[in-house]
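Record type: ASSEMBLY
Status: queued
Input:
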Amino acid sequence: MKKSVKSIFLNVLTYILLFLFFFPIFWLVLSSFRPSYDLYAYPPKLLSTDLTFENYINAWTSGDFPLYFMNSAIVTVSSTILTVAISMMAGFALAKYKFFGGNVLFWTMLATLMLPLQVIMIPIFIVLKNFHMLNSYLGLIIPPAATPTGIFLVRQYLVSLPNELIEFARIDGASEWRIFWSIILPLSTPVIATLTIFSVMWRWNDFLWPLIVISNEKLYTVQLALGMFSGQHTINWSGLLPMTVLSMIPIVVVFIAFQRLFIKGIYAGSVK
Amino acid sequence: MKLRKFIPYIFLAPAFSIFLIFIIYPGVLGFIVSMYRTPYSFGQSVFVGFNNYLSIFETTSFLDALLRTFLFSLLVVPTIYCFSLGLALLMTSPSVKAKSVLRVFFFLPSVLSGVITALIWDWMLNYDFGFLNNLFTVLGLRNLPFLLNPTYAFLSLVLIMSWAASGFFMVIFIAGIQSIPQELYEAAEIDGASTFEKFTFITLPMLKPTSILVIILSTIQSMQLFDIPFVLTGGGPGESTTFAVEKVYNTAFINLNMGLASAMSFILFLVFLTIGILQFKVSREGQFLA
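Status: finished
Output:
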């Protein structure tokens, strides 16, 4: 009897928390389907069954929202490919070779974690300006692609692969590049998958980086556009709500589809 | 055969060129810039030594922002800790049903961007159109200036950041809880321990390493917070939600005082470095995602 009371209490508590946690997201999504005369109604209408796609159609067809979406997609995909490629290569070198300076390079790489963008945004702005990379895709894509976290993740994964695989391949006369390409890469799909979804999340959600690099509206990413438009004095909510929902969709879909990898990635990082 | 000596360097070259050009060099450059009075163009800059640092300590606005950031962390970290540990306990409790689905829902806010988080909460807390104030109006209550009053805005941000981060730390706590040997609980049950006693004498002490990890990570995250207040309150009202990073941003890109802003960055770097060293001491090879 006592046990079942406790069990009911815990379940009820869980669902109350779930409601509180989830309601803000739910309310935003619901509101995005409400016509603007309902959004701005006075006295406010909280319960209304008038739902419409009008806001979505307006948001998508008036203004440059599809362009921002495209910019975000280009940046996210290319930066992620670059991140995976260079992290695999660097992680492979750090895990499977003994070479002069290897340790120093490994620690240097980890030490760069102490220089997050929040601390070096001014000199980065100056460097990008000197390289003419402000207001360009390259400026958005290349610098954030090298992440110590990514390299560390790959290295930890590859260290656990047996060295014999590589030694046998060398005896068979395989070149180092071929070993990387035909042996290491195919065996690395789990770590590549983890790194890919994290990189997609980082790049899609990025705000500070595009804020510093981009001032030309035609190059705005979705996050930058949302952040800038919401800072204006009169916010056009009926336009902003559907854009916010649309900008969540890719990341929510990736998350739901690969949630196991997300959680595994956090474990791999934290429980060591 | 000789060539093989160079192979690892070749594999490392792409990543390290980016580190060198876009992280390490800017790190050094930032310190140099902090010694100059620089106009936006970086053209006719004047060497001023440590004068920028002196002016930070003479005019208090950056120190105020830094202090505000510490206060924010001081409130956010325990809140996140309680939220995420509480959720993790529920999500590992044998009495709760459908846990694997529920976990996904609790984790979801953690994958949303800061901008989206800010907009979601703007739509909840906004004075004119926010859900809560609409609800108050319908119920005949007075509207509350959640984002327009300095104290309310500050506390709102504490809750919003906790909302956004708790799912992530819940996952870390779940891993910690699941690694506690079950025998400890069984032994305690034989000795007649209550649920509360099991929690205080087994769960909490066994979670010490996880707790330290959560506290350090959430401290770092809260001190680096930029996008949520930038979008939600713009640092206002007044400067009540202007935290250190936003202060640096405003000084550099709105007041166009790169030298002064670089000096602020360097002080911020020293603060982060201290926390980083602490983190490293606590967990060897400390390295975490997100």
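Annotation: The two ends of chain B are 41 Å apart (CA to CA).
Annotation: The longest helix of chain B spans residues 61-90.
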